[in-house]
Known about the structure:
- This protein is an alpha+beta fold.
- The chain has helices at about 5-20, 30-40, 80-85, 100-110, 140-160, 170-175, 195-200, 205, 255-290, 300-325, 340-350, 355, 375-390, 440-445, 450-460; strands at about 45-55, 55-65, 75, 90-95, 115-120, 125-135, 180-185, 190, 220-225, 230-240, 245-255, 335-340, 360-365, 370-375, 400-405, 410-415, 465-470, 475-480.
- Helix 1 runs antiparallel to helix 2, helix 2 packs antiparallel against helix 5 (about 140-160) and helix 9 (about 255-290) runs antiparallel to helix 10.
- The longest helix is centred in the middle third of the chain and has 38 residues, at about 255-290.
- The radius of gyration is 37 Å and the shape is elongated.
- The relative contact order is 0.07.
Amino acid sequence: MPERIDFPALIAGHTVVIEMINSGDAGLPVLTQLLRVAQPALGATGMAFVEFGPTGGRVIAATGAAEWALGRPLAVDDPDTVCLLSGPRVRQARVSDLNGKLAGELAGSGLRRMVVSRAEIGGHTVGSLHALYPGDDEPGAEQQGVIAYLASCIGHMYGDQSGLPVHGDGPVVAALADGLAVVDRDGHVRLWNPAAAQVTGRTVEQALSRPLPFPLPPSGQVRDHRMPDGRWLRITSGDLPGPGTLRVVTFRDITDQQRRDHDRELFVAVTSHELRTPVTVIKGYADTLTDHWESLTDVDRRQAARVIGQRANELARLVDRLLSSAAEVGPGDDPPTPFDLGEALRSAVVDLPAELRRRLVLRLPSDLPKALGHRPSLSTVLTELTTNAGKYSAPGSPIEITASGDGHLVAFRVSDQGIGIRPEHVERAFDRFWQGESGDRRGYPGAGLGLYLVRRIVEQQNGWVSLRPRTGGGTVAEVRLPRG
């Protein structure tokens, strides 16, 4: 340890720091430069500054033999934290007198003594400045006086809010729901609040002094960015007051909003397409009846009326699907009750369109156990499953309905001999508006809501529904419900 402080070097270095501030630099660059100036002038092996917030402290600037500690946290109940925040404002101490984990780390780096001074604003501690030494010699009063002066300078920087605090545990910054970061002219993170860590999955230690994990939009602009894990962030940025060397960045997770926007756009596209077909047919036949009534035979008139009725039924079912998909479809608050599944299936078949009924083959055992659920909703479930089976299989090919039960569950299956389903699509088929490949969409029109509604209805009754390829070709849809 030098007998005297190199005051000329300290003054010259401090002048450089002041020039940095006058030119617009702030925050960590200035703080780090101040430590670099002080270390040789004080004859210290390393310098460090610990910033304190409501949840504890963190080393935000370090030089020399203390650089390894950069970013290291100190818990609010850590013995070293308690020691640093109590006692005289400036003092010298043996590292061995500290009782926390940090003391052991310092000793392991060959550092035995320190001069420490708290940086305060109006009696409120914002951090502590440390000059670290390897020997056993006690630092003199001059070292303590300079450290106290430099700590006061740092406290003044905090009072001016010139890029500080850094590690984001200030009460306002920590309370923000949006991610908040401050980056320097090199694009490196200097502030990272708790919400930023939560949104990105990057801890403060992983973020500080490193580039942002997403593109930085130009100042004053907004950018939506998709992260590698598929989540979407909405990012804004703006220059902090001064010549623009620091930039504040805010961001939030908008994945759900993106999904809702996509669903809304898809909803408009699907409904406009699916509504147009029956409306066009109804209008065409209605115009034919109006304009050519006298020239049409009774058979033609009946056929036109029959088509109008069929298309009107299709339109009504489509509207019901769309309304149900936008609402909480299901049994509501009615408690589940035991019901005869076999009888419920036979009754539901009666309400199906005639061309679909003719294709059905029912194989229901007479001793089928009762199911526990909501019987009225079964009609919707069976209608959607059989309609789906009919759409993806050849006209006239059979659609088989079977059922079985065991000690806990009762199940029924709808099997077709159609184009089948690829294994990778058995889950996606239950997504709202999902239609498979574009070729399938063109060949098999529909709103993509039937299976989505089926899953919601069945799961609200503590059951589940699944799809699987049928042996020999086709698809099997199976619904399982608790046994009554």
